[in-house]
Specification:
Chain A: This is Cullin-domain-containing protein. Chain A: InterPro entries: Cullin, Cullin-like_AB, Cullin_homology, Cullin_homology_sf, Cullin_N, Cullin_neddylation_domain, Cullin_repeat-like_dom_sf, WH-like_DNA-bd_sf. Chain A: Keywords: Isopeptide bond, Ubl conjugation. Chain A: GO terms for molecular function: ubiquitin protein ligase binding. The complex is a heterodimer of chains A (about 850) and B (about 100). Chain A is mainly α. Chain A folds into 5 domains: about 5-235, 5 helical Cullin repeat like (Up-down Bundle), CATH 1.20.1310.10; about 250-340, no CATH class; about 345-545, Cullin Repeats (5 helical Cullin repeat like), CATH 1.20.1310.10; about 630-740, Ribosomal Protein S5, domain 2 (2-Layer Sandwich); about 755-840, Winged helix-like DNA-binding domain superfamily/Winged helix DNA-binding domain (Arc Repressor Mutant, subunit A, Orthogonal Bundle), CATH 1.10.10.10. In chain A, the strands form 3 sheets. A 3-stranded mixed sheet of chain A has the order 1-2-6. In chain A, a hairpin with a 7-residue loop joins β8 and β9. In chain A, α4 packs parallel to α8 (about 165-175). The two termini of chain A are about 95 Å apart. In chain A, about 35% of the residues are buried. In chain B, α4 packs across α5 (about 90-100). Chain B has helices spanning about 25, 30-35, 45-50, 60-75, 90-100; strands at about 10-15, 20-25, 50. In chain B, strands 2-1-3 form a 3-stranded mixed sheet. With about 100 residues, chain B is α+β, with helices and mostly antiparallel strands. Chain B has one domain: Potassium Channel Kv1.1, Chain A, CATH 3.30.710. Chain B is globular. Chain B has 5 helices and 3 strands; from the N terminus they run ββαααβαα.
Chain lengths: ~850, ~100
């Protein structure tokens, strides 16, 4: 109704009008005393809680009148004076009684003679008394303020004085809290502080305390300020109580943590810390102020977590190691939650986890190198005792063992990965930082195993060959996912590509692959993961396979179209392999002859006519291409006819369908024309067929040594691999239960861990390839930049190649040297730092 | 504000004996009335639910009571027509308003 702008003017008007209109008593000098008398007696009544007798209107009117008469200041001072007197005469004596000698003594840090219980009782009495005093004071002052409302509104505002309420709060602070207790020289405030802290301490030790009582006292401290400005940051609670509280808490938790470190394990520590944090949070809710919440949490975190974190993590039998070992997910979860509070980046946990992963990974690596060593040992013996009747089966199993070990390695790595993934999900809230850390460590130890690329590829090979049989799509998916995860970790992706291609070749050409769908899925996933350049050749291989199928069909139709259906016509299936897609070393059956030129074998006439027919068909539509027949990769179905075995009445003529390698076929054809009882020596066969020694030996072994399809007899008869000097007879006595026989394939056609020599060859090849890649990259970079310092060039090249492999600096230097020699670039003369320039 | 024991209405009494019964909520616009009725302080007025103004006559108090109702009725509205105030009462009403802290 009245705008505050007019307050000043209004007061004037009213002062004028009082005299005229007689609103209120007549103006006279002694009037103040009359009104003050009314008010003073009223104040007394209020303090004595007899307010119900008083008429508010009357008192208000009294103060109104005083203020109207410009005597507000006098009123203000009188009220203040009155309150001071009241404190002095009525309140302090009561408080003084509550402050017993004991209380002051313990506050001053003396006499520990009192028990907790006694301390609690006296403390509680003290707090209760103080609380009652405070509450009385508040009520009285509220009422007083109400009565003096007009004074606050007009006088205090106009004169910029603190309201009477604030002033009286200040009086309470000065006269009650800061007054010295009668018996000693500590002030009430110190005692109050001490008592509250003591009680909190008791509660921390498990005692029950009167939380509400403390809470009220804290409220009191929150309601009081350092000065009458009532600055929010200067609450007595914040300035006096809280620092003390934080300090004692610090001490308490420091000691507690020390004790835990001495006496218990990490699990207890975790739980205790979590409990303490919850307790302190609850305490802030129920006992002390919320304002302290995060500060006290910080204290607990600092003292309980940060200070000794590493000690606890390293604890024998219960630290991080044990937690991981024993899948103590609960512990880990708590640990993570606690650490999140302290350090968002999870530095400590990260480091510890990484160390753990690398340790476990090293163990896996160690175990495989041990198995490899164990396998390698007998191998050496074999070589030494060559000729002595060592069954070569053992070498076979040794290689198989190595393969199994490789797959076991992958399995173990995957298990470890699963374990940590699981942990990451359940305990670490899928924390990104931790994930990155884990990935890094996995990558570290996987790459620490020099043959990781080969192992991973073998693992995929194994799974694509047999592993996925009878598995659901989802399971297959999971396997592929795992494989991809591993690929992601591998640093030398080019090495992996090499192995993968090699293994894939065998799978494709020998028809070992379980499902072409899955193969293709795998490739498309790798494409996503690693990139296009990685899979382009692999995709080419798949394309070759499918065009080959088409081509075979076309050819068959073509032959049928010719009309001359020859009974002797041989059915042909071809695989046309684009030479730069397929890894030559995987195609190569044996090593090239010494002169490095692979000699073509002498094909029998039947086959040659077939080859010619196909070649002409093929080149009709594709001009200018060259076909090379790779006999060692094929196989053939042969119908064999065996006569009655002489002297054995029960025997009869037998016909078998024999599936042999193409070379095997060539060899068998030689025996067609051979008179009964005569033989061909190894050398004879080689001369006639021109098959390389290695391949010949393999082919002969499969049809003359291994029992399943021993259609030739070898002299001397033993289980050794066919070698020069052996003689071969047709085995008329061959018997088999089945009519269809597949000649066992010799070692080398199934994928397994490479021997040291092979491995070295692969590495050399890979290095050569890397050299070329580096060349390419250097030239490309230099072309773009024209001039570049040595440092920058190397950094650039490493960055560009990092997705494929980690270039060796020594190798890079060599490549750069050779590029300079070949005048692709030159050194810049007189440059302060070594610099290269591109030469167009 | 209104606890169950309290009546919803309060009685305002002028110095010449007129009584006005007003909604408690409405009357509490005035700081003075509000405080005098505050049950926490427990002054005589709060017990009786009755406030006597020795300085305000019936005519003015009537207008005051009218204002309380007017204010209460229109508390959530905008564009409310002004209350009619006879010019001869203006001064006295102003003084009363100052006194009542309205």
């Amino acid at each position: 109704m009245v705008d505050s702008h007019f307050d000043g003017a209004l007061a004037f008007t009213i002062a004028q009008s009082t005299r005229q209109a007689g609103l209120g008593a007549s103006a006279s000098g002694s009037d103040f005393d009359t009104q003050w008398d009314i008010l003073r007696s009223a104040l007394r009544e209020i303090h004595e809680k007899n307010a119900s007798k008083l008429s508010f209107e009357q008192l208000y009117r009294a103060s109104y009148k005083i203020v109207l008469k410009k005597q507000g200041e006098m009123l203000y001072d009188r009220v203040k004076e009155y309150e001071e007197q009241w404190f002095g005469s009525e309140v302090m004596p009561k408080i003084g009684k509550l402050i017993t000698k004991n209380l002051t003594n313990v506050t001053l840090g003396g006499v520990p003679g009192t028990t907790a219980n006694e301390r609690r009782i006296t403390g509680e009495q003290f707090l209760k008394g103080l609380k009652a005093t405070w509450e009385d004071h508040i009520t009285c002052m509220n009422m007083t303020t109400d009565v003096l409302m007009y004074m606050d509104r007009v006088y205090c505002q106009d004169n910029r004085k603190a309201s009477i309420f604030t002033t009286s709060m200040g009086l309470f602070r000065e006269h009650i809290l800061r007054s010295k207790a009668a018996a000693s020289n500590c002030i009430t405030f110190d005692i109050l502080n001490y008592v509250i802290l003591d009680m909190i301490h008791m509660e921390r030790d498990g005692d029950v305390i009167d939380r509400n009582l403390i809470r009220s006292c804290v409220y009191m401290l929150e309601g009081l300020y350092e000065s009458d400005d009532e600055n929010e940051t200067e609450k007595l609670y914040l300035t006096v109580f809280e620092p003390e509280f934080i300090r004692t808490s610090n001490e308490f938790y420091f000691n507690e943590c020390e004790k835990l470190l001495r006496e218990s394990d990490a699990g207890t520590w975790l739980r205790q810390t979590r409990k303490r944090l919850a307790e302190e949070a609850a305490r802030c809710q129920t006992t002390v102020s919320q304002l302290t919440d995060f500060k006290i949490a910080k204290v607990v975190e600092d003292q309980m977590i940060t200070l000794h974190l590493n000690d606890f993590l390293a604890m024998e039998g219960s630290g991080l190691k044990a937690m991981i070992e024993n899948d103590r997910f609960e512990d880990l979860t708590i640990l993570y939650q606690l650490l999140t509070k302290v350090d968002k980046s999870q530095e400590a946990l990260k480091i510890a986890l990484q160390a753990r992963v690398v340790d476990l990974g090293r163990e896996i690596n160690k175990s495989i190198s041990e198995t490899n060593f164990a396998i390698a040992q007998p191998k050496d013996d074999d070589a030494a005792a060559e000729g002595a009747d060592k069954p070569k089966a053992q070498t076979l199993t040794a290689a198989a063992q190595a393969t199994a070990a490789a797959i076991k390695w992958v399995d173990e790595v995957l298990q470890l990965k699963d374990k940590f993934d699981n942990m990451w999900e359940t305990c670490f809230e899928e924390d990104r930082i931790i994930q990155t850390a884990l990935t890094l460590s996995f990558s570290e130890f996987i790459n620490a195993e020099p043959r990781c690329s080969e192992y991973v590829s073998l693992f995929i090979d194994e799974n694509l060959k047999r592993g996925i049989k009878g598995k659901t799509e989802a399971e297959v998916d999971a396997v592929l996912d795992k494989a991809i995860t591993l690929i992601r970790y591998i640093q030398d992706k080019d090495m992996f590509e090499r192995y993968y291609k090699k293994h894939l070749t065998r799978r494709l050409l020998l028809g070992k692959s379980e499902s072409s769908d899955v193969e293709k899925q795998m490739v498309s996933r790798m494409k996503q993961e690693v990139g296009n350049y990685f899979t382009s050749k692999i995709e080419g291989m798949f394309k070759d396979m499918s065009t080959s199928t088409d081509l075979t069909n076309d050819y068959r139709q073509h032959i049928q179209g010719l009309g001359e259906v020859d009974r002797k016509q041989i059915d042909l299936t071809v695989n046309i392999l684009t030479s730069n897609y397929w890894p030559s070393e995987a195609l190569g059956g044996g090593k090239p002859e010494e002169n490095g030129i692979r000699q073509d074998c002498q094909w029998p006439s039947e086959i040659r006519s077939l080859q010619d027919s196909f070649t002409s068909f093929y080149l009709k539509s594709r001009n200018g291409r060259k076909l090379t027949w790779l006999g060692y990769l094929g196989h053939a179905d042969v119908k064999c006819h065996f006569p009655k075995i002489p002297g054995k009445e029960s025997s009869k003529e037998r016909r078998y369908d024999l599936n042999v390698p193409t070379y095997g076929l060539i060899i068998l054809l030689l025996f067609n024309d051979l008179p009964e009882g005569s033989y061909l020596s190894f050398e004879d066969i080689q001369e006639k067929t021109q098959i390389p020694t290695m391949d010949l030996s393999k082919a002969l072994t499969s049809i003359a040594v291994l029992p399943k399809a021993r259609v030739l007899r070898k002299d001397p008869m033993n289980k050794e691999i066919a070698k020069p000097g052996d003689r071969f007879y047709f085995n008329e006595a061959f018997v088999s239960k089945t009519t269809k026989i597949k000649a066992p394939v010799m070692a080398g056609s199934s994928n397994k861990v490479e021997g040291d020599e092979e491995r070295k060859a692969t590495e050399d090849k890979n290095d050569e390839h890397r050299g070329n890649t580096i060349d390419l990259c250097v030239v490309r970079t230099m072309k773009a930049r024209k001039e570049l310092t040595h440092q920058n060039l190397f950094a650039e090249v490493i960055a560009q190649l990092s997705s494929r492999f980690k270039p060796d600096v020594g190798m890079m230097k060599k490549r750069v040297e050779s590029l300079i020699e070949r005048e692709y670039m030159e050194r810049v003369e007189n440059a302060s730092v070594p610099t290269y320039r591109y030469m167009a | 504000m209104a606890t169950p024991s309290q009546s919803k209405y309060v009685t305002l009494v002028s110095n010449d004996g007129f009584e006005f019964v007003v909604l408690r909520e409405a009357a509490c616009v005035s700081g003075v009335i509000k405080r005098s009725l505050d049950p926490k302080s427990g002054f005589a007025e709060s017990a009786a639910g009755r406030v006597t103004f020795d300085e305000i006559n019936g005519i003015v108090l009537e207008k005051v009571a009218e204002y309380f109702n007017y204010n209460h009725k229109n508390r959530n509205r905008e564009d409310v027509p002004d209350m009619e105030i006879p010019p001869e009462l203006c001064l006295e009403l102003l003084m009363a308003a100052d006194f009542l802290d309205t």
